[in-house]
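Good morning,

Attaching, inline, the backbone tokens for the sequence recovery test we're adding to the shared suite. The designed sequence is right after.
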């Protein structure tokens, strides 16, 4: 979701796009020292990182659906705010409002999907952003059009039910049964299956309540209105006191951090800038090839993840990312880059596109292939690692790790390119991927073929890597 927002505005992040904001009513937005590309990204990622843990609390208290509806409203407010603003700080404020929405939605949407058992939007957003970037005042439409998907989602979501697991946990058994009946069909032939699923959910909730009751602080009758705060404290205790939950949190945070620290979003944010400085005459179109690759390979990942397995697909795809990054670093060593103008982004080379520039493009496509088929989608399967009692909280902390890492990468990419040079910048990202591959090999068990309620047993007494491989080999 965040990638969709960023892709639509990627042309705006290029320095030459900032320089087009010279129309009379845009004068307040031409303060390049404040509105540099890194700060433009910072406003969204910082707000999103703050929102994720809060959204996890509200998702348990109010339900997944209500939190997503609030996020849709914030999306609309932020998009319209950015489109109408005439000042730098107004732009930052609107961007921050969108960040609040993205942070909440990026946490709750995977939770909702996991409870019920998208790169295409990113590609479309990139095309729209490119088309609008060449129009007068097109940047206003570029940011304002972000309200449209949120409005459509809000109107569709209003008619959808809450998740059965949350309804059972909230004591609304009959409502949960109605939802399951609609999902699996109202025929009498599926009634028994619905009852079995409902009993399994109730059993899981009851077992978790029994575990939590051992750590729960008695609540005085006068304080019953604050019961949910006590439950929240108990969830924190259970998350960190239970070994299996700690290991689940470690794995989820490791995957989410690796997803960002590998540098992918820097490529999406600044790909047009990179292709411009290496000599491409149409850098945004070159960047579109990255978005198309991400879209196609993400579609393939949806088919392959459950067949190949999360762990195995990461162990196979991360080396592809490393190869792409190393090739990119080597290609940059053969290109003479232009001199930077102070704090501004480098000017295009102006001497045509060299062979090494095309090698850089090819290496980035290879890198994105590896990312889109593994590290892009797999971390968002994080909810399956946690039991229901701490699922929202654990996922919230993992998502906050994602946004915190995103913030660091977005803020440091341009300084790294300037002071470390592109060669060492991409070499550093390759090193992160190598370390990440080792961590996946060491502690991430295979969850292929396991039911959502059974995944936690793998982490009960250890990392469960050998046990998970034994299960997969046994089925094979």
């Amino acid at each position: 979701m965040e990638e969709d927002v960023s892709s639509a505005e990627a042309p705006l992040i290029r320095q030459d796009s900032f320089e087009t904001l010279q129309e009379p009513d845009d004068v307040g937005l031409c303060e390049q020292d404040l509105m540099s590309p890194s700060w433009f990204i910072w406003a969204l990622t910082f707000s999103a990182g703050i929102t994720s843990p809060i959204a996890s609390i509200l998702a348990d208290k109010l339900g997944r659906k209500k939190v997503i509806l609030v996020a849709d409203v914030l999306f609309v407010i932020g998009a319209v705010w950015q489109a109408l603003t005439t000042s730098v700080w107004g732009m930052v404020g609107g961007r921050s409002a969108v960040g609040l929405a993205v942070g909440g939605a990026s946490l709750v949407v995977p939770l909702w999907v996991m409870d019920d058992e998208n790169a295409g939007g990113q590609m479309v957003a990139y095309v729209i952003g490119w088309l609008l970037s060449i129009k007068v005042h097109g940047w206003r439409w570029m940011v304002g059009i972000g309200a449209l998907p949120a409005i459509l989602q809000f109107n569709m979501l209003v008619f959808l039910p809450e998740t059965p697991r949350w309804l059972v946990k909230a004591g609304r058994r009959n409502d949960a049964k109605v939802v399951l009946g609609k999902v699996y069909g109202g025929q009498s032939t599926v009634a028994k299956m619905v009852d079995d699923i409902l009993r399994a959910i109730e059993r899981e909730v009851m077992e978790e309540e029994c575990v939590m009751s051992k750590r729960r602080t008695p609540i005085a009758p006068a304080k019953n209105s604050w019961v949910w705060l006590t439950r929240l404290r108990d969830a924190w205790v259970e998350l960190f006191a239970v070994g299996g939950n700690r290991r689940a949190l470690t794995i989820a945070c490791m995957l989410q951090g690796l997803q960002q620290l590998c540098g992918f979003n820097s490529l999406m944010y600044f790909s047009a800038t990179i292709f411009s400085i290496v000599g491409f005459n149409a850098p945004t179109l070159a960047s579109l090839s990255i978005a198309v690759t991400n879209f196609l390979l993400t579609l393939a990942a949806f088919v392959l993840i459950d067949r190949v397995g999360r762990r195995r697909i990461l162990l196979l795809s991360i080396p592809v990312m490393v190869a792409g990054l190393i090739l990119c670093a080597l290609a940059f060593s053969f290109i003479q880059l232009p001199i930077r103008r102070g704090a501004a982004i480098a000017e295009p080379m102006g001497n045509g596109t060299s062979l090494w520039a095309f090698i850089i493009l090819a290496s980035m496509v290879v890198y994105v292939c590896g990312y889109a088929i593994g590290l892009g989608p797999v971390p968002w399967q994080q909810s399956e690692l946690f039991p229901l009692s701490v699922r929202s909280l654990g996922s919230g902390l993992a998502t906050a790790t994602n946004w915190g890492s995103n913030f660091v990468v977005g803020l440091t990419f341009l300084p790294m390119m300037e002071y470390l040079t592109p060669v060492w910048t991409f070499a550093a990202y390759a090193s992160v991927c190598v370390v990440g591959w080792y961590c996946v090999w060491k502690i991430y068990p295979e969850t292929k073929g396991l039911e959502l309620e059974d995944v936690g047993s793998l982490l009960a007494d250890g990392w469960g890597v050998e046990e998970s491989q034994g299960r997969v080999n046994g089925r094979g």
